[in-house]
Design a protein that fits this description.
The protein is an alpha+beta fold and about 290 residues long. The protein has helices spanning about 15-20, 35-50, 65-70, 95, 105-110, 110-115, 120-130, 215-230, 250-265, 275-285; strands at about 5, 25-30, 55, 80-85, 135-140, 150-155, 165-170, 180-185, 185-190, 195-200, 205, 270. The protein is globular and about 55 Å long. About 40% of the residues are buried.
Length: about 290
């Protein structure tokens, strides 16, 4: 069996992956896998029908810090709230003006949420699951001359009582990622490659200093992708023991498109949203920009 790695501009991901799957090839896609929930579902169904692997390159799931968090979060008991700041994806105006496809709905599909902070949104789903509903304030072209979102603030509400805030911006040149999680038995803080775990009994600090971690995380995704191909009958699921199937990207689009919808309609949005209904709203709000 052969495989295809797709790392093209976003708008080509779906059509190229579909063609590869129809040709009997396994597929590993750069994020985002497509530009809509419906397209991701189509790839999921096609991969299942063809008995092929179709994975997405969400390498951040395999970084030691987030693998550690995934393993130890249950020790905090019932989670109460988390706050995630994602300002590290600074992009100057030249990033958009020098390209011929970034910063537009038609060619890029989205901005900070879809193209950069999608890694952290994927980690939100990986660590906490999909929220029950969300409300957001998303800015479009606030800092850059672009059509798509360049700053976003989301409030996430979970059925279990967990509340999460998520803030992302591409206009902070010295921005540093920060995550704080509060549980009934303690808290954990991740900032500057340092993780601090606090309970009533102890405080533990772990520093992640491997400068080569980005390459290793990419390699981990590739290794699991290859393992899925070579091991017949392997059940596809997300997590440390396998790759990240394209179906997982649907959850990320629930957050991204849910945030856009909440801002456009100025209301809480219950999840999961209907992908087809969202695309109708999307067309209404972007038609004047085409």
């Amino acid at each position: 069996m052969t495989a295809v790695l797709i790392a093209t501009p976003n708008r080509f991901h779906f059509s190229m992956a579909k063609a590869a799957l129809n040709a009997g090839k396994h597929v590993l896609l750069e994020k985002p896998a497509a530009l809509s929930i419906a397209e991701i579902q189509e790839l999921t169904d096609l991969a299942n029908k063809q008995h092929l692997v179709c994975d997405v390159m969400f390498q951040t799931r395999f970084s030691p810090a987030f693998q550690w968090l995934k393993q130890h979060l249950p020790e905090l008991g019932d989670l109460q709230r988390f706050h995630w700041e994602v300002p590290q994806y600074y992009r100057p105006q030249s990033y958009f003006t020098e390209g011929n496809w970034t910063g537009t709905w038609a060619k890029d599909g989205g901005g900070i949420l879809l193209n950069q902070a999608i890694h952290q949104l994927d980690l939100v789903n990986f660590l906490f699951g999909l929220p029950e509903k969300l409300v957001s304030q998303v800015s479009f072209g606030r800092y850059r001359e672009i059509e798509v979102e360049d700053e976003a603030a989301l409030l996430l509400k979970y059925r279990e009582g967990l509340l999460g805030t998520f803030v992302a911006s591409l206009n902070e040149p010295l921005g540093q990622e920060r995550l704080e999680i509060i549980g009934e038995k303690g808290s954990v803080r991740y900032e500057g490659q340092q993780l601090t775990w606090q309970t009533s009994e102890q405080t533990t600090t772990i520093t992640f200093t491997d400068n080569d971690q980005r390459r290793k995380s990419h390699r981990a995704v590739l290794e699991r992708f290859l393992q899925e191909i070579t091991e017949s009958g392997t059940e596809l699921r997300a997590g440390s023991a396998s790759g990240i199937p394209v179906s997982e990207n649907q959850k990320d689009f629930q957050l991204i498109h849910g945030a856009l919808l909440s801002t456009w309609e100025e209301r809480w949005v219950e999840l999961p949203i209907d992908g087809e209904q969202f695309m109708e709203k999307f067309a209404e709000h972007t038609k004047s920009l085409k």
